[in-house]
Amino acid sequence: MVIKYSINIYEMRVSRIATKFKLLIILVLVCLAIWNIYMTAWHSHKWKLNTTPSNQMQINRKAHVRNHRDSWKTRYQFKHRNIRDGTVHQYQAMCNKGKMVLSQLSYKLYQLIDTTMNPKDCSNARYLLCEWPFLGGLGSLIHQISYCFSIAVATRRVLLLKIKYNLYPESWEHYLLQPSVKCWDFQIRNYTDWFQMENGVESDVQVVRLLLTDDIEIRTNRTWPKPIPEKFIDSSAFKDKIAQHHQSPALWGIGQLMAYFFQPSPSYSQRLDDIKKAIGFTHPIIGVHIRRGDKAFEAEPTPTYKYIEAIESYMIQMGYRTSSRKLPSIFIASDERDLIFEISNQYTQYNFISTPDVFSKKHLDLIIFDILLLKECDYFIGTFSSNVGRLVYELQQSRYEDASCLAKSLDHHYRTIYCCGITQVEMKYFEFQPTCSFQTTKQQYDLIESCNNVSEFDP
């Protein structure tokens, strides 16, 4: 009798456990279904076409910020514009303060690039398909593509990209404009490899593929096509004209290419404006980029105090410590987010601002936002061992006549590095150290100060 009673109790306990387990499974399945529905609705709402008139959007946005100023999360719930709205490259006009030579050359180069990338008839245009099998960080990717972009412009071909970079869950045009906003979806049926042709520069083949490779044996046995900056050097008349107004014609040329290529999509431009308003991104402002993460395997990390010393040195040099002028804010960017908060808490004498995490869905958002904001700073402090640091310096060259002395690298001199060992052939064209005295830095800063009061510049 006792044994039978014990068996009954055991069976009841097993039955209860099985019932609870079934209920747990059902609960998990229900939660997963709800999560799936939520995420689908979130993405559908977040990126759906916004038909609200732009002026009404501005009014609504201002009211939204004003009513929720004390709430961090609700403060940043801005609407995004449709990424297909107005996807055209814009001329990044430079402020010249009466000097028109480089502005005119810059505008002519922009027109050359734009007409090359967006021909009248996409079906009969010539194309350069850029492809590479290896991956890297965003800065490395942009410099690899910029080499192909330069070759495409030099050979008057539309650039098509075959990217293996992880942009999931978005596409390239979600972040940046396609090199060609008109012919970017051209359907390739066949192509000819660049190195299989006798003269890739003058070939009439419709689609030519340029495969970048990190294979040492392959890349050293090939004659790579020259990018546009080298063509500037080869053209002595053009070089001399630029050299009268810029310390490095090659750097100036790269800056113009980058200005066209690295343009955010309309939705990203809108979000960038929202960020600037939210964090108080106003002039005067100093940009600081601190590279950490896996960069330690390539270059020795620069101590944090070196950046602070450079900030203070610039403030003293520009007379901020001996005048009543408004002190610059410090926009700080880093792939090590905790470091930003540590610096802000340790050096409280400075007004540090940064891109809030709430604006991004993934790390790639933060990198792109940081680059776009760093290039708008009056002065940049970083390291040129970093692709991001060099990219920001290059983008600066499109904003002013000569921005050579508007950045300070705390490790290497500036070098143009694309990929694949290409730049090791004639390094003299690619290494540059500006001559920066107090007078030249002050003159360039005075130019920036006057330009910051102007919203648009004529080409």
UniProtKB/TrEMBL annotation:
GO terms for biological process: protein N-linked glycosylation. One of its GO terms (molecular function) is alpha-(1->6)-fucosyltransferase activity. Gene3D superfamilies: 3.40.50.11350. It comes from Owenia fusiformis. Pfam families: FUT8_N_cat. Belongs to the glycosyltransferase 23 family. It comes from the Eukaryota. Residues 291-292 are annotated as: Important for donor substrate binding. This is Uncharacterized protein. Keywords: Glycosyltransferase, Transferase. Signal peptide: none annotated. InterPro entries: Fut8_N_cat, GT23_dom.
